[in-house]
Amino acid sequence: xxNWISLSFFFLLTCQSNCFYKGIRFSYAVKDMLMGYxxxxxxxxxxxxxxxxxxxxxxxxxxxxxxxxxxxTMQIKSLEQDLALKLFxxxxxxxxxxxxxxxxxxxxxxxxxxxxxxxxxxxGHADLSHGSLTIGTTRSFARHLxxxxxxxxxxxxxxxxxxxxxxxxxxxxxxxxxxxxxLGVIGRxxxxxxxxxxxxxxxxFCLVVPTSHRFxxxxxxxxxxxxxxxxxxxxxxxxxxxxxxxxxxxxGIKPSVLLEAESVEFIKEYIIKGHGISFLYKPEIRxxxxxxxxxxxxxxxxxxxxxxxxxxPREIDLTPPTKAFLRLFE
Length: 330
Prior knowledge:
The protein has 330 residues and is an alpha/beta fold. It has 2 domains: 7-126, Winged helix-like DNA-binding domain superfamily/Winged helix DNA-binding domain (Arc Repressor Mutant, subunit A, Orthogonal Bundle), CATH 1.10.10; 136-309, D-Maltodextrin-Binding Protein, domain 2 (3-Layer(aba) Sandwich). Helices cover 42% and strands 23% of the residues. It has helices spanning 7-14, 28-36, 43-55, 58-65, 69-83, 99-126, 139-144, 146-156, 169-177, 239-250, 264-272, 286-290, 320-326; strands spanning 88-91, 94-97, 132-137, 161-166, 183-187, 195-210, 220-221, 230-234, 256-261, 277-281, 294-299, 304-313. Strands 3, 4, 5, 6, 7, 8, 9, 10, 11 and 12 form a 10-stranded mixed β-sheet that branches. Helix 3 crosses helix 4 (58-65). The longest helix has 28 residues, at 99-126. It is rod-shaped.
């Protein structure tokens, strides 16, 4: 993978431009080696030179590289020919570095430290022992739906750092298309063609009224009963808003909208004070229902379920953590 990477790339990683030669007395020949010939060096040659210099032995370098001694010798000779410099002085079977060889060895040592670190980090991303995943979701789903999903994911991939961002379903979908998020878990909305969609779960919503409301004493409420009732709906871009308005329209109901609000907490408090009714995510009103502050009601027409989807960019190479998260839904 790394055989033909220009050595100059590694020099740039390891040296600041203003101190390239700082603290080292280069001969003009060594400067020529670094500036004029460096583009011809490949890592096979440099690795053979480095191991032979470190071990002071062609034999040990060959053993470390799992190649023959003549192959190591040939790599070193090729490097010396390309640089027009002698890198070793040979004393019988022994090896000693020349001044130019000592300079190159110092850089080679740093280069292979970077190569080793680079391979370690990239391997970590590939096997999911490292990496990150940015997920967008709604505030309600962040509180009640995502904890279970993320616990499953991080149980399998504890080394992947997860960033959870919140917003409306439409905002999250737009953020996925602009690559702000790797993927989104949102309520179903009319999706853009640039998104791939995996259906996840159907989440139950219910009609919520004040305990003093005339509906509170009824076992069931029909959609036709909602005519002229002041209804609080979620903000534009909300998946639940889109689903509820579509559901009301399918029953011929044009809601009398009292107000629109982003905050579920505000909507609950407003209803508790006796102002309006709304359709809310059932887990969001569980505590208030238990305390007798709000009254959740069953619809005659049956339970209200809103589809949730996992969305991710279409026709791009997904990151390994993104692929791993999507495998949870297979």
